[in-house]
TrEMBL record:
It comes from Arthrobacter ginsengisoli. The keyword Plastid does not apply. Pfam families: AA_permease_2. The lineage of its organism: Bacteria, Bacillati, Actinomycetota, Actinomycetes, Micrococcales. It is a multi-pass membrane protein. This is Amino acid transporter. Keywords: Cell membrane, Membrane, Transmembrane, Transmembrane helix. Residues 484-498 have a biased composition (Basic and acidic residues). The chain crosses the membrane at residues 45-66, 100-122, 142-162, 169-193, 213-233, 253-276, 296-322, 351-367, 373-393, 414-435, 441-463.
Length: 498
């Protein structure tokens, strides 16, 4: 199926500027919440350094993605880049391996973002369960998670039905509700003197840490888990086809998101460790921000914090919802998913993809364990980043792409940077995440992750069959038209002779 097989009605609309793109991606800082207490369990206060390095890794990777987005302005973020670069031009065989690699990258990226909906619906249900005693008497945490997911998914579907521009407006509102209190929680503990620097300097690295293979594999896994949160602001690049001026808007959106993430990730982790100490953070590993708010603002502060966090969860669910639906649209456009997922409404919204994503996450919520879902999701996200960086290297070197216009160019020699971080992702961080998962929560999440990724092969084969069937029908229709035209010409010749 060609990249232009979709009707004009199914093309995404160029409707947003860099501020709106950044607003949609500003839910990303909330991704630190599941890991604020997780990283210190393994690396103590050095978690602050891990977050800083991971966000810098995001800058290295997103610089390559920004160039790709302006080189292929019709491609939709990481899924679109990889599919476009790896697809073999004018392939005549039965199975195009390059097309499969590109499609698998997009599927991995989709699986990296998609479960965020379930993860934060479960987390929101947990907070509501603790915040309102009346609710906890009536509903279990699972029931609240399911209700939260259903209400949030339905609400966001209705809002985003009217196009990405309205999604960006919702992003502005939720960013104000959630990011401003987040900044306050990151800064206030330092301003009020509640941060004890000895909690950080005295517990910088675990006392039993050794640079053996066990700990090195753990460290790669920690970087893989951290990347899932700290590099995710590349989602601003996925809206490449929807920016009014991609060459200018996209780099600005990425830079703005990266700076905000760097400041918040480092300050938030430093604040919770500085106030609670490493052992205190480990004791409150699910949500260490709540006791920080209690220490700084009193009991009322904890209630405000929970309300703020729930609002912020809606923002990150919005980001994931939009990103994963665009990934499915991109895959369908390239013939790597069934055509039905590329259908858009008159506002340019891939509504069928959004419906499927919402239903899939309601099923994921039944797992009931946000940490297990995150662990599986990180496998997909690590694969997507690694292969996408390899796609950047190919796009710079392959004759078919080397001379394309690049309105935004990464610094000279960036192919080496991309290759280094590509190899860092695959295989190093991928192996590390699998190893860390086996230590922390067993093999279930790893098997779930690999099974979801492996399920792409039969879906892809079906998509190929669908494409060939559509091409055969189109060829038969053209042949019929040609035959009809030929018969008409013959009749005209007979009439002329008569």
């Amino acid at each position: 199926m060609s990249e232009n097989h979709l009707d004009e009605a199914d093309h995404l609309k160029r409707s947003i500027n860099w501020k709106q793109g950044a607003a949609i991606a500003l839910g990303v800082p909330m991704l630190i919440l599941p890991s604020l207490g997780y990283l210190p369990m393994y690396v103590s206060a050095a978690a602050i350094l891990i977050w800083g390095i991971s966000v810098l890794q995001g800058f290295m990777q997103s610089t390559a993605y920004a160039e790709m987005a302006t080189t292929f302005p019709k491609a939709s973020g990481l899924p679109g880049f990889a599919q476009h670069v790896f697809r073999t031009q004018n392939y005549k065989g039965k199975y195009d391996k390059g097309k499969l690699i590109g499609g698998f990258t997009a599927w991995s990226y989709w699986f990296g973002w998609n479960p965020i909906l379930a993860i934060f619906a479960i987390t929101a249900g947990s907070y509501l369960h603790g915040l309102f005693p009346a609710l906890s008497e009536t509903f279990t945490e699972y029931q609240l998670a399911l209700i939260s997911g259903l209400v949030i998914f339905t609400g966001l579907f209705i809002v985003n039905w009217f196009g990405l521009k309205d999604g960006a407006i919702l992003g502005y509102i939720l960013a104000a509700i959630s990011l401003i209190p987040l900044v306050i929680l990151a800064v206030a503990p330092f301003a009020t003197g509640h941060v004890e620097m000895t909690n950080i300097t005295g517990n910088w690295w675990p006392s039993d840490w050794a640079w053996d293979m066990h700990h090195i594999l753990m460290l790669f896994g920690i970087f893989g888990i951290a990347q899932w949160s700290a590099c995710a602001w590349e989602t601003a690049a996925i809206y490449g086809p929807e920016y009014k001026k991609p060459s200018k808007d996209l780099p600005k959106a990425l830079l703005a998101c990266g700076i905000i993430c760097f400041a918040l990730y480092v300050l938030l982790q430093a604040a919770v460790i500085g106030v609670l100490g490493v052992e205190g953070v480990q004791a409150e590993s699910v949500s260490p921000l709540i006791p920080v708010a209690q220490a700084v603002f009193g009991q009322a502060g904890s209630v405000i914090t929970i309300i703020m966090l729930i609002a912020a969860m809606v923002l990150i669910i919005q980001t994931a919802y939009l990103g994963s639906s665009r990934a499915m649209h991109s895959m369908s456009s390239e013939g790597n998913l069934p055509a039905v997922f590329g259908k858009t409404n008159r506002h340019g919204t891939p509504f069928i993809a959004m419906l499927v994503i919402g239903a899939f996450n309601l099923v994921l919520i039944s797992m009931g364990n946000a940490a297990a879902i995150l662990a599986a999701s990180a496998i997909g996200y690590t694969c997507a980043n690694g292969i996408s960086l390899f796609a950047y290297v190919k796009a710079k070197k392959h004759p078919a792409f080397a001379n394309l216009e690049r309105p935004f160019k990464a610094p000279k020699g960036w192919t080496h940077v991309a290759m280094i971080f590509g190899l860092f992702n695959v295989p190093l961080c991928l192996i590390g995440v699998v190893y860390l998962n086996s230590l922390e929560i067993g093999w279930t999440s790893t098997w779930v992750g690999f099974l979801v990724l492996a399920s792409y092969l039969p879906i892809w084969l079906y998509s190929l069959h669908e494409s060939r069937r559509a091409e055969s029908k189109a060829a038969a229709a053209r042949a019929t038209d040609n035959a009809s035209n030929h018969d008409a010409d013959d009749r005209e010749k007979v009439l002329d002779l008569t």
